[in-house]
Amino acid sequence: MTLEKTNADSVITCLSPAKINLFLHITGRREDGYHNLQTVFRLVNWGDDLHFLPLEMIETSQITPVNSDNKLQATKLCKDLLTLTGTDNITDSIEDNLIFKAAKSLLIYAIDTKKLPEHLPQVSITLDKRLPMGAGLGGGSSNAATTLLTLNKIWQFNLSQEGLIRIATTIGADVPIFIFGEDAIAMGIGEQLIPIDLPDQHYLLLTPDAHISTAKLFAYPRLRRDIELLSVKTIQNQSDNYTQNLVAPYHNVFTPIVISLAPAVAEALEYLQSLESQALGTARMTGSGSTVFLPLDDSLVSNKALLERWIANAPCSAHIINNYS
Questions:
Q1: Residue 39's closest CA among 209, 171, 210, 176?
Q2: Among residues 9, 19, 129, 153, which one is catalytic?
């Protein structure tokens, strides 16, 4: 993920990109209640913008590591250090916001390891939100990852990518892929990442106004949790079966449940399916919904009139996007 600094020594503006799942399988339920997944994450060039403005330094010497109280001290310090704008409609409390949680996690690390500097700059963070919440695009997770990456630089903690991924895993299952910063095969709860080289692609992406709780979907009685675990080599060698087209055994286990519960998602997916013969790709849902997308054949990318007509006729908000690079 590239950090773009604007206005020389002032605001740092970063794209917080979305992800799509080219397929999504559940291979089992874990003893801790979580589920083991297998998927291919693809980062795309559409997302939110986050703006970071470093401000005056404040003293942190009042923070003394005291084990169980470290989280409380990190919470207090985080409130002193951060100002968030553009997040009011996302969570009722600032402490529940994933941007705040990411910053707090960095501070917990610094306190726990006794690497907290005596002074840190306050940071004003402004979120320009484009990605709908609950859309299966990983917007909140991407915001958290972008915050980890950027504050790691601003606060000069100098954590490695591996160290940031360890912290990211404690925040949410989708956060590590955005630290990883490239297309990947993912397993476990999403923290086991293996890079994969995929062809450049464009997509017609629809975001219906629908949201079903992810927790509700994972608890759904008819959800399949026994998909056969594929080898990494198999997934790498069979990319033609899930990039442009989606061929068995590759699929999204959440699709039949979501379209039965959310008519708007069913309508959006049916619309994309009506275009498959022209697009030469297979329409599908990303994550646990509600976003659906259709890979586009390369020959269509320059046909702006056709794509504009498809967007205009879509039953909900529609975008042409391509992979992040």
A1: 176
A2: 19
- Of the candidates 48, 101, 129, 174, the residue annotated as catalytic is 174
| Separation of CA 70 from chain center | 28
Q: pLDDT tens across 62-114, in order? A: 766 555 578 889 999 999 999 999 998 888 888 999 999 999 999 999 999 99
Q: 200-322, superfamily in CATH?
A: GHMP kinase, C-terminal domain (3.30.70.890)
Collapsing DSSP to helix, strand or coil, 50 comes out as strand
- State the Cα torsion 124-5-99-73 to the nearest 10°: -60
Active site residue 71: no
Instruction: Give the distance from CA 111 to its chain's centroid.
Output: 27
- For the chain, count helices (H), then strands (E): 11, 11
Q: Judge residue 323's burial from the number of C-beta atoms within 10 Å of its C-beta, 0-12 exposed, 13-18 middle, 19 or more buried.
A: middle
Closest by CA to 103, choosing from 83, 133, 88, 85, is 83
Nearest residue to 173 (alpha-carbon basis) of 36, 268, 81: 36
Query: Could you tell me the pTM of the whole model?
Result: 0.93
Radius of gyration of the CA atoms of the chain, in A: 21
Whole-Å CA distances, 159 to 99, 109, 142, 150, 164: 18, 10, 18, 11, 6
Would residue 174 show up in a list of annotated catalytic residues for this protein? yes
Partnered with residue 3 across adjacent β-strands are 14
Convert the pLDDT of each residue in 165-184 to its tens digit. Answer: 999 999 998 999 999 999 99
Which helix (H) or strand (E) segment holds residue 202: the answer is: strand 202-207
Taking residue 4's Cβ as centre, other Cβ atoms within 10 Å add up to: 10
**Which architecture does CATH list for 3-192?**
2-Layer Sandwich (3.30)
Question: Where along the chain do its domains lie?
Answer: 3-192, 200-322
State the Cα–Cα distance between residues 305 and 314, nearest whole angstrom: 14
Query: What residues does 186 pair with on adjacent strands?
Result: 39, 193
In the 8-state DSSP scheme, what is residue 69?
Answer: G
DSSP code of 59?
E
